[in-house]
């Protein structure tokens, strides 16, 4: 994939989807962190519902959640998967942010990118995707979070190799300019949800099918192809 082809894919995606109004690079970091922890292995609708339950029950601050009863956090998160683990992680991370960072993530986000990422990765429950979401959405740091959609779509489109998280992130970041990282992340998710679905991609209708080396997979969706499509996903 050349940079020009990658640029053209982004141009088509921008014309094909409306970026949601919630796209912003100055989201509140603690709430973003909590939503992203809840979202791990959980459908978007259930993540939103769980976060809504949590917000109704508690102020979503490190202090309130560090002192909350774990069983009450669990109750709020029941709609999301792995709710017991997530409640435990949320309590631990809240306590640590309160004690070590005086309840404020903003100083971390003011650090140079690599230092900020390394610091976030040391927090309980924070893996590369969660750290990158916070860095991109809350401070517009130059990184592209690779969630399940970004991973699948990038590989099918040839924007990234069949590698791990860092290989996909690095490939996308080489092809695109940092000013486009936020839009690209969101647009690949939208493409993945609407057309480039994990089990049954709608290649004929897909707006970027002329650039896609995998465009036949949607036409010949047999059981064997389904298996391949699933295997290629994270
Ligand atoms: S053509 Fe098919 S495989 Fe390629 S990006 Fe579109 S939906 Fe995905």
Describe this structure in words.
It is built from 13 helices and no strands. The protein is an all-alpha fold and 234 residues long. The protein folds into 2 domains: 3-19 and 145-232, Helix-hairpin-Helix base-excision DNA repair enzymes (C-terminal) (Endonuclease Iii, domain 2, Orthogonal Bundle); 29-139, Hypothetical protein, domain 2 (Endonuclease III, domain 1). The chain binds iron/sulfur cluster. Iron/sulfur cluster is lined by residues 153, 156-157, 195-196, 201-203, 206, 208-209, 212, 214-215, 217-218. Residues 153, 156-157, 195-196, 201-203, 206, 208-209, 212, 214-215, 217-218 line the site of iron/sulfur cluster.
Corresponding CATH architecture of the largest domain: Orthogonal Bundle
Bound molecules: iron/sulfur cluster
In terms of DSSP E residues, the strand content is under 5%
Shape: globular
CATH class of the largest domain: Mainly Alpha
> For the record, what is the CATH homologous superfamily label of the largest domain?
Hypothetical protein, domain 2
Major beta sheet, specifics?
A: none
Number of helices: 13
Low-confidence residue ranges: 222-234
Number of domains: 2
Q: How many beta-strand runs? A: 0
- Listing every helix as H and every strand as E from the N terminus to the C terminus, the arrangement reads HHHHHHHHHHHHH
- Separation of the first and last Cα atoms: 22 Å
What structural category characterises the helix and strand content?
Answer: mainly alpha
CATH topology (fold) name of the largest domain: Endonuclease III, domain 1
């Amino acid at each position: 994939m050349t940079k020009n082809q990658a640029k053209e894919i982004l141009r088509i995606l921008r014309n094909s989807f409306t970026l949601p109004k919630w796209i912003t690079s100055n989201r509140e970091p603690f709430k973003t962190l909590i939503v992203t922890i809840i979202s791990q292995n959980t459908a978007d609708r259930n993540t939103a519902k769980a976060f809504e339950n949590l917000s109704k029950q508690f102020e979503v601050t490190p202090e309130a959640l560090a002192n909350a009863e774990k069983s009450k956090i669990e109750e709020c998160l029941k709609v999301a998967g792995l709710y017991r683990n997530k409640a435990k992680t949320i309590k631990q991370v809240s306590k640590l942010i309160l004690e070590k960072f005086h309840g404020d993530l903003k100083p971390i986000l003011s650090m140079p990118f690599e230092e900020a990422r390394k610091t976030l990765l040391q927090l309980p429950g924070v893996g590369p995707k969660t750290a990158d979401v916070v860095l991109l959405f809350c401070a517009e740091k130059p990184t592209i979070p690779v969630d399940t959609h970004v991973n699948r779509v990038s590989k099918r489109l040839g924007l990234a190799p069949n590698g791990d998280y860092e290989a996909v992130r690095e490939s996308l970041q080489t092809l695109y300019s940092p000013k486009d990282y936020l839009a690209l992340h969101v647009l690949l998710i939208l493409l993945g949800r609407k057309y480039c679905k994990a089990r049954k991609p709608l290649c004929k209708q897909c707006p970027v099918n002329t650039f896609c080396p995998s465009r036949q997979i949607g036409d010949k969706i047999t059981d064997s192809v389904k298996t391949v499509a699933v295997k290629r996903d994270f």
